[in-house]
TrEMBL record:
<protein>
    <submittedName>
        <fullName>Short-chain dehydrogenase</fullName>
    </submittedName>
</protein>
<comment type="similarity">
    <text>Belongs to the short-chain dehydrogenases/reductases (SDR) family.</text>
</comment>
<dbReference type="InterPro" id="IPR036291">
    <property type="entry name" value="NAD(P)-bd_dom_sf"/>
</dbReference>
<dbReference type="Pfam" id="PF00106">
    <property type="entry name" value="adh_short"/>
</dbReference>
<dbReference type="InterPro" id="IPR002347">
    <property type="entry name" value="SDR_fam"/>
</dbReference>
<dbReference type="GO" id="GO:0016491">
    <property type="term" value="F:oxidoreductase activity"/>
</dbReference>
<keyword id="KW-0560">Oxidoreductase</keyword>
<dbReference type="InterPro" id="IPR020904">
    <property type="entry name" value="Sc_DH/Rdtase_CS"/>
</dbReference>
């Protein structure tokens, strides 16, 4: 079995997933970079040696096909990061049953299937780590995004359940991001309001998230835990 470490990152085409994939490639990982519809960032990652893998995480069959594709190309998996997300308001999920289903399929069903399906590859290393990206609203839900918050809470519970079930061979932890990187559609008023409600008063950027991944990956005595990377925002919501 090759000694090169292997990682699978869902939602690797943009933002945090993209930067994490680049960071791991620079460390010498073989990276499976998952994407759904947009290949922009993944094409760049492939130029750096990543293997792009497409899958619609709302489809159980597509997730299974993703598992099988990874299994055909590696006997081991050192790091699985369930990062892919979809984010809808109450109004959207109330009007669109597919959007409501997608929230739970992407945040709960897909991570469950990936962890279960890739368990043999994770166990091969003896020290593999799963990191699930949840949300600070897991503990204090927003009334504007009820389904999203409930799904992220489900992912948090799944994290702790797998941490118990898969120990000692596999460690499972979570990261709860806050205002890391605003979206292009966030106007100045929104940004100022969010930062005013964040004790450190700054947009975090992606480096603190990468540092949290490294800590959870490298500390061998941490499992079933969550790290808030939010500038203290969870204290005020």
């Amino acid at each position: 079995m090759s000694q090169q470490p292997v990682a699978l990152i869902t939602g690797a085409g943009r933002r945090f997933g993209f930067e994490l994939a680049k960071s791991l490639l620079a460390e010498g990982y073989l990276v499976f970079a998952h994407y759904n519809s947009s290949r922009d960032g993944v094409a760049e990652l492939e130029e750096q040696g990543a293997i792009g893998v497409q899958a619609d995480l709302t489809s159980r069959a597509a997730v299974q096909a993703l598992v099988e594709k990874v299994q055909t190309q590696t006997q081991r998996l050192d790091l699985l990061v369930n990062n892919a997300s979809c984010f809808f308001t109450n109004e959207v999920v109330d009007d669109d049953p597919a959007a409501l289903a997608a929230v739970f399929e992407v945040h709960v069903q897909a991570p469950y299937l990936l962890i279960k399906g890739l368990q043999p590859q994770l166990e091969k290393t003896g020290s593999a780590v799963v990191i699930n990206i949840t949300d600070i609203y897991t503990d204090s839900p927003s009334t504007d995004y009820i389904a999203y918050c409930a799904a992220k809470a489900g992912l948090a519970n799944l994290t702790q359940s797998f941490a118990k079930a898969l120990a000692p061979k596999i460690r499972v932890n979570g990261i709860q991001p806050g205002p890391i990187l605003f979206l292009p559609e966030h106007d100045s008023e929104h940004r100022q309001k969010v930062l005013a409600e964040t004790p450190l008063h700054v947009e975090g950027g992606l480096q603190p998230m990468l540092q949290a991944v490294r800590f959870l990956r490298d500390n061998p005595f941490v499992t079933g835990e969550f790290i808030k990377v939010d500038g203290g925002r969870a204290l005020l919501i």
